[in-house]
Amino acid sequence: MQLTYVFSELGNGLRRNVSMTIAVIVTIFVSLTLVGMGLLLNAQADKAEEYWGNKLQITVFLCNQNSASSNCVNGEATKAQKNEIEQVLSTNAQVASWRLQGKQEAYEKWKEAYVAEDGTEQRVFESIRASDMQESYWVQLENPERFQNIKTAVATQPGVDSVRDLRDVLKPIYFWMNVMKWGAIGVAAFLVVAAVLQVGNTIRLAAFARRREIGIMRLVGASSLYIQLPFLLESLLAALLGVGLAAGALLVFMYLVIYQMLRPTSNIVAWVDWSDGFWAVGWIAVIGLTLSLVPTLVMTRKYLRV
Question: What pTM was computed for the model?
Fold first, then answer.
C-alpha cells in the first residue's frame, strides 16, 4: 500500500512537471556527454604520449654548404667530425641505437612527403637536389623522458647544425588536445551547475504543488524518508535517462568515429578503445547520479521541512 502511494505520487509529479523534468534530462545529457568527451580526450592524450614517447627519436642534422649555424663555419661536416659525433653517440648510456641517414635517403623521403600544387612552389621543388639535403643521425633513446643529456652532448659538437626533438613537433598536437579536453570539461562544468539548479527548481515547484498532501502526511506522522521518496525517485529517473542518453552518445561516438573512421585509416597513434569508453561511461554515471540525488536530498530537507 505504501509503495503504491509512492509510485502514484511519482507519476503525478512527472505529469505536473513534465517540461521541467525534460529540461533536467536534456541538461544532464548534454553536460555528461561533454564530461565523457573530456575524459576520452584525456585518455587519448595519455595514450598518445605513451605511444609516441616510446617511439620518439632525436634527430641530429649535420652541416651542409647552406648551414648558417655557428658549428658550421667550415661548411660541410667532415669525416673526422662525424667520427667524433658517432663516438659520443656510441658511449652515451642513454642511447639505445643510432643510424646515419644519407643525403639521398633524406631526399627520397622529402620527395614522398612534399606535395606542391602551386607553380612557384613546384619550381622550387624541382630545383632542389639530393646534394642540398642534410645528413642526419637518428637516435633511439633508452628512456625517451631522459633526452636532454644526449641532446646537449651532441648539439655542441662541430659539424652539427641542429638537434631536433620530436616533442617540439608534437607540442602543438598536445596543446590542442589539452585545449579541447579542458574546453569540454569547462563547458560541462557550467552545464552541471545548470543541471543542479534545475533539479533544485524542479523540487521546489513539486513541493509547492504537493503542499497539501505533504501537510496531511506530516499530521499523520509519515517518516521523512517516506515523504522524500517520490522526489528522490523522480530525480533518479531523470538522472538515469540523462546518463543513459549520454552513455549512448559516447558509445556511438566510439563506434562511428574511433572504430569506423580513425582506427582503420590511421595508425600514427594508439587510439582509445572500448575499455576507455566504458571507463568514461562509468564516471559519467557516478557524476550524473550524484548531481541529481544530492541536490534533491538537500532541497527536500529545505522545502519540505521534514
Answer: 0.60
